[in-house]
Amino acid sequence: MRPPSHSSPGRRLAWRVATPVVVLLSGALFAVSAEQSDGFDLRGGRLTDLASVVRAERDEAGELTARAAELNAEVEALSTELGDRSVGRAQDEIATLVDPAGLTEKTGPAVRVTLDDAPEETRLAYEGDPNDLVVHQQDIQAVANAMWNAGAEAVTIQGQRLISTTGIKCEGNQVTLHGIPYSPPYVIEGIGDPAAMEAELTTDPILATYRDYTLIPGGGVSWDMARLDSAVAPAYDGLLDLTYATPMPE
Questions:
Q1: Do residue 112 and residue 145 come from a single domain?
Q2: Helical pair 194-203 and 205-212, crossing angle rounded to 10 deg
């Protein structure tokens, strides 16, 4: 005959309920511990090691910060040096270009050419084309071009320095230069080798035709050429910006 069981149905039910509860409580405790530790050991014996790690990381961060500051200073120094070199090169280029560009004053031996319209009495009595008796923009341009061709270092018209963008425009009986109208006589001076300029001015075909009109009876247009021991061509002080037309949008 089997002995009677000491486990009653009530006790078995209690164990069935208590066991899952204990497991759940243990899991919750482990989860809270893991969250609080953030991956580190929470046992007291490891606190000293953690403090050492923090100090080591802090020291390394300080060293890296100092090194970064040194590198930044080196970069700034190199950039400044590079900038100084670039500025220096630009200044050298500017110094090389301002003179031929007409932005500096020039002084030296020169040739002066003076052009003038025919006297009024000649113009009133002349039966030919009235344009034969006045100075035109192409005549002034021919004188300046002949001087440039002869190697002139600087050219002025009415005392104004000519540059690469200078335009000579005829408006009525006046010539406009850099926006300023001038009446005859027109004085053109070129600084350079006087002999070379005189030779070019004498042989230029356009100017040879102009001088033919000086022979009109009663006095035609005038031509006067003189050599100067010294002349001054002032620096150009006008606007350097260029304006140009652009197509209108359709």
A1: yes
A2: 70
Instruction: Tell me the average pLDDT of the chain.
Output: 77
Q: How far is CA 91 from CA 97, 103, 235, 239, in A?
A: 10, 14, 18, 21
Q: What is the pLDDT of residues 152-193, one digit of tens each?
A: 999 999 998 988 777 778 776 788 887 788 889 999 999 999
Last-in-domain residue among 98, 124, 141: 98
Helical spans, DSSP H, in 126-231:
137-149, 194-203, 205-212
Phi (first) and psi of residue 14, to 5 degrees: -65, -40
Report if residue 144 sits inside a domain. Answer: yes
Of 27 and 205, which is predicted with more confidence? 205
| 115 and 180 assigned to the same domain | yes
Say yes or no: 76 and 183 in one domain.
Answer: no
How many domains, the chain? 2
Pairing of strands 106-116, 186-191: antiparallel
pLDDT digits (tens, 9 = 90+) for 80-106: 666 555 555 555 554 555 555 667 789
Longest distance between any two alpha carbons in the chain, whole Å: 170
Residue listed under structure tokens 């408006």: 171
Please identify which residue in the block is written with the tokens 């066991």. 19
d(CA 86, CA 172): 50
Domain that holds residue 223: 106-233
- Kindly state the DSSP code that residue 205 receives in the 8-state scheme: H
Decide: helix, strand or coil at residue 95. helix
- Cβ atoms of 156 and 189 within 8 Å: the answer is yes
The confidence band for 1, taking pLDDT boundaries of 50, 70 and 90, is: very low
Q: Is the pTM of this model over 0.70?
A: no
**117 and 155 fall within a common domain:** yes
Residue 129, SS3? coil
